[in-house]
Amino acid sequence: MRRLAARGAAGDVGEVAAPAADSTDCAQGRSRRPPRLIDLCAVWDPGVFLPAAGWKRASGTARRRLNEAETVSGLSSVREAQVERLEAARPCRPGSRERGPVLRMARQQPPPWVHTAILLCLLSLTGAIEIPMDPSIQNELSQPPTITKQSVKDHIVDPRDNILIECEAKGNPAPSFHWTRNSRFFNIAKDPRVSMRRRSGTLVIDFRSGGRPEEYEGEYQCFARNKFGTALSNRIRLQVSKSPLWPKENLDPVVVQEGAPLTLQCNPPPGLPSPVIFWMSSSMEPITQDKRVSQGHNGDLYFSNVMLQDMQTDYSCNARFHFTHTIQQKNAFTLKVLTNNPYNDSSLRNHPDMYSARGVAERTPSFMYPQGTASSQMVLRGMDLLLECIASGVPTPDIAWYKKGGDLPSDKAKFENFNKALRITNVSEEDSGEYFCLASNKMGSIRHTISVRVKAAPYWLDEPKNLILAPGEDGRLVCRANGNPKPTVQWMVNGEPLQSAPPNPNREVAGDTIIFRDTQISSRAVYQCNTSNEHGYLLANAFVSVLDVPPRMLSPRNQLIRVILYNRTRLDCPFFGSPIPTLRWFKNGQGSNLDGGNYHVYENGSLEIKMIRKEDQGIYTCVATNILGKAENQVRLEVKDPTRIYRMPEDQVAKRGTTVQLECRVKHDPSLKLTVSWLKDDEPLYIGNRMKKEDDSLTIFGVAERDQGSYTCVASTELDQDLAKAYLTVLADQATPTNRLAALPKGRPDRPRDLELTDLAERSVRLTWIPGDDNNSPITDYVVQFEEDQFQPGVWHDHSKFPGSVNSAILQLSPYVNYQFRVIAINEVGSSHPSLPSERYRTSGAPPESNPADVRGEGTRKNNMEITWTPMNATSAFGPNLRYIVKWRRRETRETWNNVTVWGSRYVVGQTPVYVPYEIRVQAENDFGKGPEPDTVIGYSGEDYPRAAPTDVKIRVLNSTAISLQWNRVYPDTVQGQLREYRAYYWRESSLLKNLWVSQKRQQASFPGDRPRGVVSRLFPYSNYKLEMVVVNGRGDGPRSETKEFTTPEGVPSAPRRFRVRQPNLETINLEWDHPEHPNGILIGYTLKYVAFNGTKLGKQIVENFSPNQTKFTVQRADPVSRYRFTLSARTQVGSGEAVTEESPAPPNEATPTAAPPTSPPTTVGATGAPAATTEATTVPTIPSVAPTTVATTTVATTTTTAATTTERPPTTTSGTKMPESAPDRQSIWNVTVLPNSKWANITWKHNFGPGTDFVVEYTDSNHTKKSVPVKAQAQPVQLTDLYPGMTYTLRIYSRDNEGISSTVITFMTSTAYTNNQADIATQGWFIGLMCAIALLVLILLIVCFIKRSRGGKYPVREKKDVPLGPEDPKEEDGSFDYSDEDNKPLQGSQTSLDGTIKQQESDDSLVDYGEGGEGQFNEDGSFIGQYTVKKDKEETEGNESSEATSPVNAIYSLA
């Protein structure tokens, strides 16, 4: 009966128990009809009870089920006493007015059994069966179709894309689909462009092969069918988007008198959907709008009064069409303003007497829109109401809004367009009435009244839900909707009107309700409810499914549950069946049903054990039973001992360098795995080589100052954990004591003893103790702790603290706590062991005097709200069975409070709308009563992702590193949560400098609050960027806006890198630098400013400008005594960038290198380098300071007297960076050397740690991305392999055991993968010299050729053919040949080509035979073939005509 009562309480008893009914509807709503309920269902007229059915007319199954019910409810005596009367009673059937013989009883008071019968009839109104989400059950059960996805009712498509009309459905068996178009069957097979997706009803209309989308406009409806019924989609109206062109028109200039009103009409072409209107000039500059000039909702541009300054631009109306993403521009209006004062003084624009100063007459306001003094407007419920008033006048009128008979809805009203428009969001019937706008200036005022009528398309009050019944059960489908005007309701079954469907005796239609009685398997179908009025319609599908399923268990069998002693636990037993089974629990297979006392059975079948004891261990069996059978499952419960630290670590005071041991001994269940870990200052403790962790202690060797802090021992198993904390204080070395008492050893005090409780009162007690020995250190404080045995037995809490001079105190107590006390003494050395506990003292109970704190209501999902609070502790409970009454309701509604009693500290409210405010109250209650009335806290249900993105994002470049953003804010109802911020995501797409690698890492800029503009800064100049906008709520980002692109202009460059000043001698100073890391534009050169100084005297500043490719410069010193200060900066077209300053090194007699003391980091290091007298100023990190220090490294000719200061000179090339070597006497890291490449770098260093020490190499790039690499000491060199080319990095190395021991920070830069800014080759000395040498050689050749042609040349040849060079040839080694007129040696098988190589000839026979040779010619390889002859006279006569003399190669041979 407990389970039945719980189910019946949720039924709708109002309709069933109506008195004086002519007929009985006992089963309105879903009715589980076991005979014990059906056969006792009756109508109670005043004084008359009509039983529902005769006993003998009941079926055998019904009699058996009634007998079962009698056993449970104890109604057997009722049946025996009334069996004869039941035989004569009529059945309980709707519409039957014939009662038959009845037994009339006393009208004044019905007998007790009548109350029981009516109660059982009311209990029959229960909810429908819910199908579990278990896939195995979902796949087994037969289900009629259900529409799961469909296109919107008004479906507008882009004509450039294929058309997609969605229709998805589920069911078992899987449904088939067909469509209607304009209420006629749509034959998809006959149209080759139309196809249907596989296993889906979604239509795809493909236009790739041609066709016009407009031909497919119309009204579509999808039908999903299987053998159990047919489900319908909405009627989907398909329309093709249209963006017509603006009509051609010639607009004459608009002539208007200054101060007069003006309306520029837009009249955009009608589009689908309607375009977005905005006004700009013909040069695409936005029109500045204010309260004088603004755009109306209809798109027109209104001037309350025209001023002369309005003539400075033209005005063009622009229409942006959503689907085509096109903007159409109307021809621009040109204004011609007639004025009495043609002088346009811009300083008068914001002057209070601007109009009188310009001679414009002032006048009272009048309305430009709407016309007249009154108008009306109709709006649909749930939409936004926009009221607009635009007035003219001089001065410009102010607009104010009012509502007659009430105030404007502050939570929904918003003023727009400089108060000219009033927007009320999510309109309801309460927003109807008369609104008026008041336009006023100093000349007067005028008002316009707008009558607002709120109509409503149909909206659901009760949407029909799927109904799943067991055979023989009753149920109902309810379809209630409201609207204005009142909507009509039409029922359909399987897509056909209900009137034309076959008659069903088990179904009755009563207006908006269909009642089902004694349903059978054949009653399965899909019903449609269509409710409509002139403003729209609603269509809902709800199926009726009849299931006959024996009980089934849904959880794994024979689960093992382990729980800690004294904890609360819940044993789950999910089940399913139809009819809904009853569930009972048994322990160890015997005994009665478990419920009550320490057990509590929930309606879903879960068994809760409030406090686990040892005797609760065992096997629990849950049994689910219905008329078709039963099913059972077992859960084995094991009770484990809690994990407890019985010897906790104690506070200690230790001297530096000593050894400390912290104890932590744990008792736990031996069947559970124990893990002991330590925390330091609430962070995981790294166990280094100075620490040793054992099972029951932590030992620290060589205690240092950094070891001071709190240490927490955490003992945990897979089920629970316990922790204990102690504080370690580290003392510095102290001076030798000066007196005898100070020399005595000090220690922690002994524990207090002999605790005694006296003056026992209801809320207080006096505690007295005897102090222990202070061990030569006076006791400063006493800490009193207490322990209670109900909520946290064995856990001690601090109660109060008292001075060390007292040993008795009155303690204030809380009700219903079984106290036990102990005392801890504290001196400067530490704390004592706790005293032995006192005797227990229990205070009497009382209702709670407070409620839980920190009550919150926040959604963890989009359809719930989690109510949480801080649970009250033992001293706040004030009584047994502390629980919390949680109440909630929608804010600003008249609905009643929902409430539930919770034992924990959270409760989740389900099925909530998205981000709705709730009023929440949490009240404490115990067995003695309730706490005080709680405060009301406002909470919110869960947020969903925003549905809209910022639109009309406009970008204006402010400078080379910043842009201004402006966007249209999203509507509040699309945020679906608390609007946290607008966020811009932007990234650097590329640089305008060619071949410059850039990082495309996405960055973001946040603009908190509801704001329409913001500024994004810290951009790179001279770059291409892309940007997207989103709106952010507590759930996350919404959809992204359209991607915008912009380009930043040139900026000033960063400082030149690695500016170096070298002084090779006393006469010159050499300067070198590298290009800036960020050029930020096209470099046009460098500017060098330098000045000589000697002490405080400064010389004249000299300025030098260099080309962008020059990176070196030499300065001739005017005098050898003065030093020079150099300032270098790079330039772009924008200007000079950041400058870097260096000074020339000091003369040798000014250098004062000194050695740094071993105990402190050196700041100046003198380094002896190579014998060459070279001085250099560079930036070198010091040891072990974190920040780099500028060090002057000077080579002196004389020997330095302090040998310790002579160190190895660090590398000065760009290939590596090296720290000065200086080995200190304490543990340190020094001499860090970095040898970088383009994508990697090798790191080495020196240290004086022991072998096996762990180090960490930490490096950070110029984007502030930090990375760490753990390494071993012997693993040098360490190679960093994930570097970027041309990136600047900072690096340090520290000990993993002690981060305080670190090297200095060193900076290095990787080389670029390719070099774009190489020095101009034309300015290089070697190139100039080479060119001069070539020019000189060419000149000599030309002179020789000229001389040869003048006197004729004789070129002897060798007489032999193809004679190879012998090894004795003196010219063989260098490849030259001896040509001599005296020797006249023959040519030996080779000749020299023009490119200087020696080629082997195939045969001399190919030459002209030694007689009349032909003209000279060139071979294929470009080598010259001369004339060969043995006739000397012939050679002499034709030598001048030979072309050999003109060959530069032969000219060279002649010189040889």
Give a quick precis of the structure.
By secondary structure, the protein is mainly beta. Helix content is 8%, strand content 39%. Mean pLDDT is 78; it is low at 1-127, 735-742, 1150-1223, 1314-1319 and 1353-1456.
How many β-strand runs?
104
Proportion of strand residues: 35-45%
Termini separation comes to 130 Å
Chain-averaged pLDDT: 78
Q: Give a quick account of the main beta sheet: strands, pairing sense, barrel closure.
A: 6 strands, mixed
Q: What's the helix count?
A: 14
- Helix percentage range: under 10%
Give the low-pLDDT segments.
1-127, 735-742, 1150-1223, 1314-1319, 1353-1456
Apparent shape: globular
Radius of gyration (CA) equals: 49 Å
Judged by helices, strands and strand pairing, the structural class is mainly beta
Describe this entry's structure for a reader.
The protein is built from 14 helices and 104 strands. The strands form 31 sheets. Strands 6, 9, 10, 13, 14 and 15 form a six-stranded mixed sheet that branches. A hairpin with a 4-residue loop joins strand 83 (1057-1063) and strand 84 (1068-1074). 8% of the residues lie in helices and 39% in strands. It is mainly beta.
